Amino acid sequence: MSRPSTEDRVLGALRWTVIAVAVAATAGPLLYGFLLSLRPFQSVVSEPLDLLPPLDEITIDSYPTAMAEYGLGGNMWNSLQVALATAALAILFSVLGAYAAVRLRFLGRGTVNVVFLGVYLLPGIVLAVPLFVLLSRVGLTGSLVGLVFVYVAQTVPVALYMLRTYLMAVPSSVEEAAMIDGCGRLALIRRVVLPLALPGVAATALYVFMIAWNEYLFALLFLVADRDRWTVSLGIAQLTEFSVPTTVLMAGSIAITVPVVAGFFLAQRLLVTGLTSGAEKG
Amino acid sequence: MRTAERPVPDPPPEPRRKPLTLSQREDLHGRLLVGPTVIVVLLFAVLPFLAVVLFAFLDVRLVDIPRLYIDNLVFTGENVAAVWNSPRFWSAATTTVVYAASSSAGAVLVGLAVALALRRPFRGRGLIRALVLVPYVLPVVAAATIWKTLLNPGYGLVNAVGTQWLGWAEPIAFLTTTSRDLGPFEVPVALLCVIAFEVWKTFPLAFLFITARLQAVPEDIEEAAQIDGAGKTRTFRHLLLPELAGVMALLAVLRFLWSFQNFNDIYLLTGGAGGTEVLAVRVYSELVVRANIGTASATGLLMTGMLLVVVAVYAWMIKRERA
C-alpha cells in the first residue's frame, strides 16, 4: 500500500551503513592482528598494505617464539592459575551472599548492598595506592595470592549482582519443600539452588574469569619486579617496551584473546541477560 | 536413594536450650552467608580506601614502607596543598573531564546507533550482535597492542593507507602528537585516539543496555503512529527517545564515572604522552616514578572527591525529576 518514502530509503541505507561500519570496526582489528601474526616481520614492515599474506609466506613461527622465547607461555600459566582461583573464590562467596540477599531477611542487608555498590564505583587506581603499600608492608606484593584476593574483592560485587538475577528465577517453593524435608541451609544451596541456577553460575564464573584474565593495573603494580610471576597481560605489555617484533606481539595478543572470546561466544546469551537485568525497567 | 537421605522420624534432642525462632535463624544465616564477602570487601576495598584518606595526610614515601608503624606517623597537610597548587594536576583534571565526557557521550551515541540498526531481525543478526560485543570482552592489553600496531608510523595499516592511497605527505605519529593544524582547527591527535579507543571498547555495553530497553518498548504504539503517517524520524523522536532517555542518562553517567578513572587504556596506548595525561596516570606516576605515597594518595583523594560531586549531582537531578 504505502510506498517507501525518501525518509525510509535514507534511513534504510543508513542502517546498513551503520551495521557494516560496526562489523568492520569490531572484527577488523582482531582480524588484522591475526593476519599479522601469520607473517614474517620483514614482510609486514616492507608491505604494510598486503593484508592477506601470500600462501607460501604464511608461518606460525611467531606463536612458539612468543610462548617460549619471550616467556609468554609461563606467564599464561600464571594468568590461568590466578583467574581460576579468583573465579572459584568469587563464586563461592557470591553464591552464598546472593542467596542471602535474595531469600533471607537479615539485619544490615541494606547497608551491605550500599557498601558493595560503593566499592563497585570506587576508582581502581585510587585503591591501588594503599593496596600496594599495605600488601608490601605484609610482604604480599610479588605473590599471586595477594593478587587473587584483590581480584576477588573487585569482582565479588559484580558477581553478586549478576547471581542475584539468576537466583531470583529459581522458584522458592522448591526450596521450601526441601526445607520441610529437613534440608539444612548450606545443603539446600548446594543440592537445590545451585543445580537449578547452574547455567547462571557458570556464566558469572566465566565473567569473573575474564576480568581476572584481562586485568592489567594491579598486576603491573604488584608483580612488575618479578618476571617469573608476570601474568600474561603484564607480559605482553612489558614486551611492547622493548624492540620485540610486532608479529610476536600480535601472536601473544591473539593467544590471550582466543580463550576469552571463545568463552564469551559460548555463554553469550546468559551473560547478556545477567548484565542487563534491570535495564528493562528503565 | 532419596528416602535414604530423609531425616530419621524422631528428631535428635536439641543441644541448645532455647531453639532460635525462624526469623532469628534467618537473620543469623543471612549474616553468616554474606560474611565471607563482607570480610574480603572490607579488607581489600573499604580498608584501603580509609588508608588513602590517611596517606593523603602523611609524609610518606615508598622507601618508608618497611618502617611504617601506626604509632610513628607524621601528619602533614602539604601533600594536598602541593597537589592542589600544581598546574599539572589541573591540566590533568581538565584532560580527564574532556576524555571522560567525550568518550561517555560517544559510547552512548554509537551504542544507540548500533542498537537501532540491529533492532529489526534479519538473517545473521544474532552473529552480528555477538560480534559487536567483542571489543568489550577483549583483554585490554591485546586491544591496545593491536591498536598501537594499526597506528604505528612505520608499518601500521592506517599510516600505510594514508601515505600510499590518501596522499598524506608523511606518516602521522598518532599516539605521540599533541596537536596538529588541520585547516583552521587545531586537532588534539593523541587525545582523540585514546577517546576513539575508549568509545570502541565501551560502546558495546551501551548497545546491550539500549537493546534490552528497546525490547521492552511496546510495538503497537509505534505501529499506530506510523499508520497515522508519522515518519520514522518523528516516531523515534517522540515515542522511542523518551522511552530510552532514562537508560541513556544512566549509561552516560556510569560511563563517565568509569572513563574518569580509566588508567589502563591511556597508560597502555600513550603512557600519558601527547597531551593525554589524565588523573589516573598522574596517581600512578606520583606513586611509581616519584615514589611519593603521600602525593599519590592526595591526587587519588581529590579525584574521588570529583567523582562524588558527579554522583551527587546525578542523584539530585533524579530526585528533582521524581518530585
UniProtKB/TrEMBL annotation, chain A:
Gene source species: Glycomyces luteolus
Subcellular compartments: Cell membrane
Keywords: Cell membrane, Membrane, Transmembrane, Transmembrane helix, Transport
Primary site of residence: membrane
Protein name: Carbohydrate ABC transporter permease
TM helices/strands, residue ranges: 12-35, 82-102, 114-135, 141-163, 192-213, 248-267
Domain of life from the UniProt record: Bacteria
Residue ranges that the Swiss-Prot or TrEMBL entry lists as coiled coil: none
Automatic annotation (TrEMBL), chain B:
Any Gene Ontology CC annotation: plasma membrane
PROSITE patterns linked to this entry: ABC_TM1 (PS50928)
Annotated transmembrane regions: 32-58, 97-118, 130-147, 189-210, 239-258, 293-317
Domain of life: Bacteria
Keyword Coiled coil included in the entry's annotation: no
Topology in the lipid bilayer: Multi-pass membrane protein
Record's keyword terms, sorted: Cell membrane, Membrane, Transmembrane, Transmembrane helix, Transport
Record-level GO BP terms: transmembrane transport
Ranges for domain ABC transmembrane type-1: 93-314
Localization of this protein: Cell membrane
Positions of region (Disordered): 1-20
Protein name, as recorded: Sugar ABC transporter permease
